[in-house]
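Researcher: Batch entry, complex prediction.
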Amino acid sequence: MPGGLKAIEQAGDRALSLVDSAYAALKQAIRESVFAPGYQASAGELALRLGVSRTPVHEAALRLQEEGLVRILPKRGIVICALAPDDIREIYEVLIAIEAGAAELAANLPEVERFALADDLQLETDRMEQALAAGDLTGWGRADEAFHRILVERCGNRRFMRIIQTVNDQSHRARMLTLRLRPRLPISGAEHRATIDAIRNGMPEAAREAARHHRVRARDELLPLIESVGLRHL
Amino acid sequence: MPGGLKAIEQAGDRALSLVDSAYAALKQAIRESVFAPGYQASAGELALRLGVSRTPVHEAALRLQEEGLVRILPKRGIVICALAPDDIREIYEVLIAIEAGAAELAANLPEVERFALADDLQLETDRMEQALAAGDLTGWGRADEAFHRILVERCGNRRFMRIIQTVNDQSHRARMLTLRLRPRLPISGAEHRATIDAIRNGMPEAAREAARHHRVRARDELLPLIESVGLRHL
DNA sequence: GCATTGCAGCTTCCATGGAAGATGGTAGCT
DNA sequence: AGCTACCATCTTCCATGGAAGCTGCAATGC
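Model: Structure tokens for the complex:
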């Protein structure tokens, strides 16, 4: 955790509570694998590292537990949760269900918003293709992530966004890995375009099915890959 | 909150922490409208009522906030969240997306489990019809709730269950109201049967669409009803 | 050699007190 | 009268200490 809370409190600027800061710092540390899955920490130790007392650390840990990132073992400590292949499957099933719903909602938006959303989605898809042409894998991943985030963020259902946020936090480490594992990427562009067109033209069923199909294919492609590599947890 | 924590600690039997007890007690109190939406409480007051100190109450409040049941206003207090019609819409959209996904998964289960699940779902549907014939509205609601819970509980995705649990906690009060508001109920039986048959016969697409259609119809029936009654919050 | 028991060191859990912040009413000023 | 500034009071936020519980190891008994 380089620099402890300082960086985060600066970044958040606006009067973040110690709990919020600790929560953000720990979450980031987990996302970036500063703490490996299975690592067992104590609230006291983390509090020392972050320069706060045990209380805010404990409350942050409770929130992280709520989101499935850590488990608090009574009287024993805090352990970083690992993801089994079954978890990846479950997470993809959530993505399939929710993003399909989000695409349907998006296609039902008033025309102005629909067009603006479609434009923004197109922008990210273009970025993906550019990154692909330049061989920039990280850039491709970032644009892909943005596409999916924007779709859910702007569909008009805040609960969808919340759900997606939770599973994304859980699966970020897996995502970083599978990005490098995949043999080929270019299909995504066409599938994104199908979703975008359906949204722009206000066709809810088509949008839903396009988004569904996109995630279903990704799941069917990645799951066997993960299993074949023999990952027990990540 | 009749009896405070005592009843809950007894019920839970197994060494429940004070935080868990307080969480359960507060959640139940909110579900049963002991605290009306908009009611503002302080952690100290609730702690006094429950017979514990402020710390476990505060941690329970954090969990409830995570689930959207209360809001903690910094330095001000804890307020019980109200549900606007827009929230009901969002909740139904979540139900539509997740339950459709659950039905699809269920239809893909191994035959033994599929049959057992279909039987149990049929049992609840039968209970609904019996309750309907007897004019027992509460019994009908309970069986309907059981049907939907069992479907998600046994589909093989624990995250689905968790998501549904959260929105159900939020919408329980609204459910109690709309149950009495609806002009007629009997259609549900047939729609449940369509879902059950598709699951039993291992037809994922059919199961998904049946479950989807069931919730879509319920939404399209209830939302205008709620708006027409002019509920601003519940 | 093997099982059991006791203990030391760790952990969380919960209570409590002080500090800082938000609010609403009142007094004082223009 | 209307507006501002202040202050009493209530609240959460966070630090800290004591109590209880879990684990692993060593010592003891068989």
